[in-house]
Amino acid sequence: MGGEATSAGGGGFRARMDHYLYSGEKKHVLAGIAIFGVPWYFMTRGAKHQSHQDYMEKANKAREERLSSGQPSALKE
Predict the structure, then answer these.
(1) 3-state DSSP of 11-41
(2) Alpha-carbon span 52 to 6, nearest angstrom
(3) How far is Cα 31 from Cα 20, in angstroms, rounded to an integer?
(4) 3-state class percentages of the chain: helix first, strand second, coil last, to nearest 5
(5) Are 36 and 29 within 8 A, CB to CB?
(6) Under 8 Å CB-to-CB from 66, ≥6 apart: which residues?
(7) How many other C-beta atoms are found inside a 10 Å radius of the C-beta of residue 62?
(8) Predicted local confidence at residue 6, as pLDDT
(9) What digits encode the pLDDT tens for the residues 8-28?
(10) In this structure, are residues 15 and 6 in contact, taking their beta carbons and an 8 Å threshold?
(11) How large a percentage of the chain has pLDDT more than 70?
């Protein structure tokens, strides 16, 4: 009963999105790539991805410089 109404062209936003996501039509695939790919490209360009090891080395170096400067840190434990 409910499926008949959605397959006849009616239905809500969820039904329409399910159709676009799972249809596999070329125009829907290209639209999905544009919708998700373009923002991803702009967010990740110029970003240098570091390994955890690189991060730890940089943090240790900064900690050593701070401790060797002889000035008290702002946070006292």
Answers:
(1) CCHHHHHHHHHHCCCHHHHHHHHHHHHHHHH
(2) 49
(3) 9
(4) 70, 0, 30
(5) no
(6) 73
(7) 10
(8) 45
(9) 556 799 998 888 888 888 988
(10) yes
(11) 71
